[in-house]
């Protein structure tokens, strides 16, 4: 079992969308997938098919010692085992942060309780980095996918926080999301991003696609509703990249 954290340094980077789509595409490739929502926004379930935001989830286990997060899991129609975050009040969110600060390996231990085959994968959706949740996810991960739109503010955040992220996880790869090559500014930012990345691999570039929110509104996936779109090809490319990384890592660990 391997763990992948989906992280971004900017809000609105499309992190949750990518985490959900990647979970489904890996499940379609025969992988056992657990999608864990570690973001207090509690939105990952909406992408995976829940009609309402999950009222309870892993956050409850952080604030109530008698609660176990295993009781709140749910399996999607695509076969993805989903662990919701759960709705929290401001006071509960503060209590979650305090518990994570006091127990820096809490998430790593929780993931260790998941019984998956060696070929399985845990995908973690996180809030914006830096945060307690994102930091614990990075530390627990075998691979961090850092989602970065080609925008100046996102690139600035990436440059500022990349050293700490690389210290938390040895394998960090970039996913450039919402790419619009027609915008000259984006081409300039991409050049800045490549320079700041200092040799980090780019897992995939994913183009902007207007049909994506429409597919979500209908409860579908862009890869099904617009399979010939560039974004669909890009998303399949990201799934292929991760799928190829998984057995390669297993082989290196067995060597």
From TrEMBL:
One Pfam family hit: CBP_BcsQ
Protein name: Cellulose biosynthesis protein
